[in-house]
Amino acid sequence: MVAPSARRSPDLTTDSAFAQGRAETFRYHEDLYESTPLGAANSWLLEPDQLVLKALTLCGGANPIQAFDLGAGVGRHTIPMAKGLAAGSKVTAVDVIPSAIAHLKANCAAAGVSDMVTPVVGDLEKFTFDTSMAAGLIVGFSAVEHVGSITAMRGLLYQCAAATAPGGLVALGIFADRIEELADGTIRPALVEFELNSTTVHSLLDEVFSSWIVEYAHTGAEHVPEERDGIPYKLESTLIQFIGRRPR
């Protein structure tokens, strides 16, 4: 059963549906970052996701690289990337929320990695990579799905592939099949920029990275307790994890 109050009106345009989802993305993250410091217990800001740590291990080597953290937030992955990559490496950290980047700058300073990190306020749907510096690592965890359409997501993934140096890695954690379950068992659509299913994600990854070496791939269910307007719910989704290496 879908709660009537949570349904998007069938006459909503794509633009207005996106606007609702984008407003919720800002609200949720701004509230979280203001109330929960990086590394806080009982939050997903406690530590980096294992996907990113695995990608850092796969990078290896003593040579410095250019890396990108897409959807960087307050530095949950940016800081471990800066600390885990070879000396002299640089990390460009991109997020659409200005307050997130402000927190990221402060967190990078506290961690002593400001000289390695270039913070950028930018919408991933409009972001373009600097082609003068091929990337040794591109990370996008809960990032590439925060655009306006599957067409935009496809374009961003192709950009990631093209921006990666031979032998470089792209590490992605993409959430799909998102729904919200209320305490009484009522199911409603998640308030996101656009609806995305896991079958489409797998097809896109196969399309964009068809010639790449798959270093890691895993798909599993995720359940996260959340709250909006004082009402608790459980955000249920499928997390598709992928690490690919561009052939040399």
Shape by Cα distribution: globular
Task: Identify the CATH architecture.
Answer: 3-Layer(aba) Sandwich
- The helical percent reads 25-40%
Q: Indicate the structural class.
A: alpha/beta
Helix/strand order: HHEHEHEEHEEHEE
CATH class: Alpha Beta
- Count of spatially separate domains: 1
According to CATH, the fold-level topology is: Rossmann fold
Number of strands: 8
Layout of helices and strands, plus pairs?
Layout (H helix, E strand, L loop, with lengths): L13 H22 L14 H10 L6 E5 L7 H7 L5 E6 L2 H14 L5 E5 L13 E7 L8 H14 E19 L4 E3 L8 H11 L4 E16 L2 E15 L3
Parallel strand pairs: 1-2, 1-4, 2-3, 4-5
Antiparallel strand pairs: 5-6, 5-8, 7-8
Textual characterization of the structure:
There is one protein chain. This protein is of the alpha/beta class and 248 residues long. The protein has a single domain, classed as 3-Layer(aba) Sandwich (Rossmann fold), CATH 3.40.50. 31% of the residues lie in helices and 31% in strands. Strands 1, 2, 3, 4, 5, 6, 7 and 8 form an 8-stranded mixed sheet that branches. Helix 4 links the parallel strand 2 and strand 3.
